UniProtKB/TrEMBL annotation:
SUPFAM superfamilies tied to this protein: HAD-like
Name under which the protein is recorded: Haloacid dehalogenase
InterPro entries given in the database record: HAD-like_hydrolase_sf (IPR050155), HAD-like_sf (IPR036412), HAD_sf (IPR023214)
MF annotations from Gene Ontology: phosphoglycolate phosphatase activity
Domain of life: Bacteria
GO cellular component, one term: cytosol
Stretches that traverse the bilayer: none
GO process annotations (BP): DNA repair
Signal peptide: none
Length: 255
């Protein structure tokens, strides 16, 4: 194995196109809070969710966004003063963020228990990514750094015949920020180049705020959940704008 470069990848929006599953899980969870919502999510709302997906940092937010969509809010309206809308909804339903995280995870667990094949089908990997990760694993150390709960990452990777040791999946369970995970990896692999591949520009900019991570090479996954405005904002920064075909072609490194 060539350990010269450590590859760290976000999961949703880089490895897995989970937008539909996240929308449906958000809807299922929402029906337990608001009894006026029907059992099945309308297809139009599921499709609209993809437009709003770039604003989400952690999955539980899907519960609130789905509710806003059900109430008829447009994509533009949801983006406007988003943080304030989230806080107002939390106040109205008298639930904490931890409560919603628990509900979101349990809703996924129930879906998996009742119909694992359907849940997996709603979490497809981006075309070519499974093969890329298998090649990566033959020659490099690679890790997942995500806000997703780790058991769900393990389920999806396993279903796609991708081997990754549990200690290399850094999810919500660790209660560490992405910069904190990267600092830990730098300490674990001193002197090694670290690549961080992420589809959310705020996450990449968050890494840039830590001088000790200045030598981490940042890649912006344009195939994920981001907007044209994000692409423009990233241009000129010390961030590599990366298309999926370039990532798959192994141009990030000698893989």
């Amino acid at each position: 194995m060539n350990d010269s470069t450590i590859y760290t990848l976000d999961f949703d929006g880089v490895i897995c196109d989970s937008a539909i599953e996240t929308a449906i899980t958000g809807w299922k969870a929402g029906t337990t809070i608001w009894n006026d919502m029907p059992e099945t999510a309308p297809q139009a709302i599921v499709e609209q969710f993809r437009e709003v997906r770039p604003i989400i940092e952690t999955g539980y937010e899907a519960i609130l966004i789905i509710r806003l969509m059900y109430l008829g809010k447009s994509t533009a309206a949801i983006y406007a003063n988003y943080a304030a809308k989230v806080q107002r909804m939390l106040d109205e339903i008298h639930l904490s963020i931890d409560d919603l995280k628990k509900l979101f995870g349990e809703t996924r667990d129930n879906w998996i228990a009742n119909n694992r094949a359907n849940w997996i089908a709603m979490n497809p990997l981006y075309p070519g990514v499974a093969e890329k990760l298998r090649r990566l694993g033959q020659r490099h150390v690679w890790c997942v750094i995500t806000t997703k709960q780790e058991r769900f990452v393990k389920e999806i990777l396993g279903a796609n015949n991708i081997e990754l040791a549990g200690e290399r999946i850094f999810g919500m369970d660790r209660k560490l920020s992405k910069p904190e995970v990267l600092k830990g990896l730098k300490a674990q692999y001193p002197g090694r180049q670290i690549y961080f591949i992420e589809d959310r520009l705020p996450a990449l900019e968050g890494v840039q705020k830590h001088p000790e991570l200045a030598d981490v090479k940042l890649f912006f996954a344009l195939w994920g959940y981001n907007l044209a405005a994000d692409h423009s904002a990233a241009a000129g920064q010390a961030i590599v704008l990366q298309q999926l075909d370039t990532f798959l072609s192994d141009s990030l490194g000698a893989v």
